[in-house]
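Lab notes, practical 5.
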Amino acid sequence: MESPSKVSEPQASFADPILVTGCAGFIGARTCEMLCEQGHRVVGIDNLNDYYSVSLKKHRLEQLQNKSGFEFHKMDIEDAIDVDSLYAKYRFECVINLAARAGVRYSMENPAIYMRTNSMGTMNLLEAMRHHGGKKFVLASTSSLYAGLPMPFTEDLPVNTPISPYAASKKSAEAMAYTYHYLYDIDVTILRYFTVYGPADRPDMAIHRFIKNILTDRPIKIFGDGSAARDFTYIDDVARGTIAAMRPLGHEIINLGGGGSPIRIDSIIELIEEICGTPAKLEYRDPFAADMQATRANIDKAEQTLEWCPTVQMREGLESSVAWHQENT
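Output from the prediction step:
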């Protein structure tokens, strides 16, 4: 199925190839695809870990390897020696760091993994940039940092009290990126993503689970009463914003979100039921302590600084997601 959003050209002045970490991940794969479609050379790295289905990661990678200009290296950003060797070979001017351990709930079970990848892995990339002359660093961060703060979330809010190891590890990565900007003049743009969804998304993500379970007539577990709400953002919009962030900005933190009112989880399920033509079976569970009740991004800064705004409406994005499940699962 054709993507419902258009690809826009980045405004950047950095030489190819571009390094994209986490290239077999949900956001990484789509970002690499768009970059290749725009004529860039892309070196993608991923450790293909088994946090979720390796076959899904390989599926995304197979699609990428058909793209002209794409080159893959199996590599872990936790390995400082391998990262430095790759930099020494290619002398990347621009790096988009999308490699991360994601998921609030799993981070409560394995916090050390999150710190090693999200914090130490980021430092390894920045160290290699420092030694080999890198200029631009784009870092994927998270709306989870805004827990407990007033909505809509603006980038200048004091995100000093993360309530999950995942959020804490991302806050650490943000702080490290600023330090390397301050000390070594690396141009840094930090993107705080808001609940990204779309075709080929992670199996642990809510919309993926909702669609899969409705299509296979299995019950959906709802943590809480269904009133939790999120600022959902379609994958193509996020990939476009990520590419737009390649432009020189100095040091900026920018929200990428849907920009409208947050949508309740029970409303999302109703929409998927309509699209699938099948009723959902619901099982209610207690909410998790680290879950946020609602998220809503203020995207004024993205509109002004990146000339970016989301283009895909919720129903359109869900229809593309359902179609992908019907074709691939």
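Observations recorded by the TA: DSSP finds eleven helices and 13 strands in the chain. The chain has a mean pLDDT of 93.
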